[in-house]
Design a protein that fits this description.
The protein is 29% helix and 22% strand. It is built from 11 helices and 15 strands.
Length: 397
């Protein structure tokens, strides 16, 4: 008789993500996962054992992990993502060696995380794979570094871009994102959730604001630049009920299993910034009315996920163009599965399952002798201002 699964999750022990994963394991009749905290990983204290299956989850929502990764004491601060990236990717590489040395199995390929957590590298890989993406002068490893606002001005002018998103290369959850517009007279304004303090320090805010002078925009960009910046064309999005719309699509083992439509009156559709879940059925109808196919939209997401074959679950941000006929991929999120109470798409193989249950079904498929029903998810061998704490490493819809 062989022993059953021995799941381990590296995450935030008291966090929502770990709780959802544990619930999914229990619902599938599997043992709960042993939980390893990110601070233990970052301090070199994590240990693994032969026969364990180790799944990495986000270090977001863990103040101690954030302090160790970014080196800042105020979690609402925006700065420090470059340091976060270096320390996180190094820790994952060390963890992977520890897992392999112990005879355990790591669910995802650790070599893909440095690409997934660098928007410039992600963009370059998607473009090379033929996945439609917004135009960008910073795409790929060979792209020029952005040292400040003067570089943004020069790169966008050279590419003929008057409306762009300026993003932290290693940010998430819209932290440090600016939607920048330049009119024909050269006037600049930016929409962002970044709050700039009197001393020049930058903070994440739950209120989206607009800076209307180039001096203010330049000061923010110059402060962000040392952490690394990605610049991409601001594509006109489709709308629903007068609100800009995009989609988060979760892809598990190469198959699009879950989708949520996000709408907003601002350029950022993240729910924590005032975005709202839209009507997915109405969006599908709009695609059909425009002569398109929903299956083709999901196919773009599956092609994006295929550019990261060693990562079994990703969240793809799909940008429908105005008119609902064409689509581009904005980002691919390694931890883009935090979509509470969302069940699988019809015909997607995860009907009735949330995103965590779909992953459990893929990771630990039932044998024919199992009496409990399971999902048909395809498996692969081995997916006033209020400040808010930043959530680098976390991606929520």
């Amino acid at each position: 008789m062989t022993s059953g699964p021995r799941p381990v999750v590296v995450g935030v022990p008291a966090g929502r993500r770990v709780a959802f994963f544990q619930d999914a394991l229990r619902s599938a009749g599997l043992p709960g996962a042993r939980v390893v905290s990110w601070p233990d990983v970052l301090r070199g204290r994590a240990r693994f054992a032969a026969g364990e299956t180790v799944r990495l989850d986000s270090p977001g929502e863990e103040p101690e992990a954030d302090r160790l990764l970014r080196g800042v004491d105020d979690p609402a601060r925006v700065e420090g993502t470059g340091r976060w990236y270096g320390r996180f990717t190094a820790a994952v590489a060390d963890l992977a060696r520890s897992v392999e040395g112990a005879g355990a199995v790591l669910v995802d390929d650790p070599a893909e995380l440095p690409v997934l957590f660098d928007k410039r590298l992600t963009h370059g890989r998607l473009r090379a794979a033929g996945v439609p993406v917004p135009g960008s002068p910073t795409s790929g490893a060979a792209a020029p570094a952005v040292r400040g606002w003067a570089d943004v001005r020069a790169l966008t002018a050279g590419a003929g871009m008057r409306r762009v998103f300026v993003k932290l290369a290693h940010g998430s959850s819209a932290s440090g994102v600016l939607a920048v517009e330049t009119n024909g007279a050269g006037r600049v304004q930016a929409t962002t959730s970044v709050e700039r303090g009197p001393d020049g320090r930058l903070f994440n805010s739950l209120r989206v604001r607009r800076y209307t002078s180039e001096r203010e925009v330049a000061a923010i960009v110059d402060a962000l630049a040392p952490d690394g910046l990605h610049v991409e064309r601001w594509l006109p999005k489709a709308t629903q009920d007068g609100r800009a719309a995009d989609l988060r699509v979760v892809v598990v083992d190469g198959r699009a299993t879950h989708a949520v439509l996000r709408t907003s009156r601002s350029p950022m559709t993240n729910l924590h910034l005032g975005g709202a879940r839209g009507d997915l059925d109405a969006a599908r109808a709009a695609i059909a009315a425009a002569g398109g196919r929903w299956a083709d939209a999901l196919g773009v997401c599956e092609r994006a996920a295929a550019a990261f074959p060693g990562t079994r679950c990703v969240g793809v941000d799909l940008l429908p163009a105005s008119g609902w006929r064409r689509f581009a991929v904005g980002e691919v999120n390694a931890f883009g599965d935090l979509l509470p109470r969302l069940t699988g798409l019809p015909g997607g193989g995860a009907e009735g399952l949330d995103t965590y249950a779909a992953q459990v079904a893929a990771l630990f498929p039932r044998t024919p002798r199992d009496s409990s029903p399971t999902s048909t998810v395809r498996t692969t061998s081995t997916a006033s201002t209020t400040r808010t704490t930043r959530t680098t490493g976390t991606s929520t819809a």
